[in-house]
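Late entry, evening session. Most of the bench is empty. Finally got around to the prediction I had been postponing all week. Sequence below, unchanged from the version circulated by S.P.
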Amino acid sequence: MSRERSCVRATVAPAAITAPEAAAADVVIKSEEPVYALASRYLGGKKFWRRRLDSRLDIHSAIVSGVAYGSVIFLVSQVKELKKGDLSKVLGISTRKLRRHRGDPEKQMPTDLTSRAWLFAESWARATEVFGGKKKAERWMSERAIGLGGRRPVDLLQTIQGAALVNDLLSRIYFGVYT
């Protein structure tokens, strides 16, 4: 039995990671920190999220713990270049319902709305980092992108899969691999 276990361990042991690969992985992880910080600010920061968000696990925990509608109201107030209808589709909430919640900003949002708000804020923050400003990022999000099959990034942000495509393209642009 112990012989079988040692064989299993040998086959499951991680492949040797070279120093450059480890350094590259560390760069990718560290490059997320400014994006998380900026996304958090777009959502009202600690006022609504009540904690520092340094990792995906922190973000998940905050979303599941509950976040007030004030956060998404703050986010919407920050967006200047995108049409409110486009933002409403991304968030999955009508502009009318958002207006209603302005009267009760401390009420907790449903988890799915909080998750969608974070997803948008994170993508917007990443675009801000890539293009050098909020306004430029918003303009890029509303224009058709060749790297997205001629679709607008804001339209793709309605799903997790679409957001992954948008964030992948932003990473490729950032690293100069735009094909």
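Two things to note before I forget:
The chain has one domain: 45-174.
Residues 45-174 form one domain.
Will write this up properly tomorrow.
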